[in-house]
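Request:
Um, any thoughts?
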Amino acid sequence: MANAEHVAILRKGVTEWNRWRAATNHGDVDLSGADLAGFKLSEASLLRANLTGAILTRTQLEHAHLKDADLTRAVLDRTNLEHVNARNAIFDEVATTEANFEVGTLRGARFLNARLSGARFHRAYLRDADLSGATLTGAWLRFARLDGATCEKTDFTGADMRYASMVKTDLRGANLTDVHVFGISAWSIKTDADTRQDLIVGIDQGKGEAPLRAHDLHTAQLLALMLDGGGVRRVLDSVGSKLVLVLGSFSPEEKPVLDAVRSALQSHGYVAVTFDFERPSERDYAETVVILAGMSRFVIADFTNAKEVRSEVTQARNQYKRVPIIPIAREGATLPITMVNSFTENELKLIVRYKNVDDLLQKLQPSVIEPAEAVVSRIEESIARSEALLRGS
């Protein structure tokens, strides 16, 4: 039960309440079970307050200080918590309809099994919050920050999460059916077989139009980019002008070579992506290699431990003849005879032999990058001449 003296002081208004709290060095406050419905508590100091089971229907808590407060099982129907500071506060099993947490600071807050249907979290800061088992059906989460949040078995059905940020968010077992996700930023999220993702991608749709949907957040982000007119082309043009695919073996002996090449390429302004020759030829993996090769400015392939020319290299060579492939290998390594079928004589002349990592790094600029860029330049000039002929100029 609430401390009657504490409730009486709170009834005198926020100014008197905050003065009393400062005088008592913000000591323990017991407002558990108190009926505070309709109270005007804007900017009230409720730091570490015990508000378990409190009735806060239509209570005004804008800019209130609720850091480390305990609101377990509180009633928050239409409660206004806009701009609240509730870091590490506990909202377990709260019952609310249309509560307003807009622009609230809720980092590390806990909402275990909370009922938050229709709640507004627009621009709320929920980093590292725990929403496990919470119900957020129809909630408004536009521009909300959920980075690092735990949302295991959270029900987001029908929520609006446009432009939200979900980096390293745990969504295992979560329900994202009919969730609006245009503009969402979702990276390194955790999902599992129980995660339901039936996402609405379009920013809006006309009356009677079926919404564009995706069945996972990564696909949704790609589709949203495609909706942005030239968005995909701008990205591909930007990546293609800098991307270098590095292929080789990730054995303990050779991995340092590829790591060194990748770092050196990055220091030259390239975006280096490495793939392992020794990985089994799974279809998706091989297709990814071929697609990346087609997007690359040039490819570096280390054949030191290769017993044959991998199928993805052959496919890339056949499909993207205008992408230079620069072969490299340690001195003394015997290269697969099948290279004769995959590379021209001029390409085989470009093989760069190296003694060790330092030797390769010394040769990278004059023997790998410059020859590759020379080939790229010749190809670009040839394409320009062909286009001129087609235009009749």
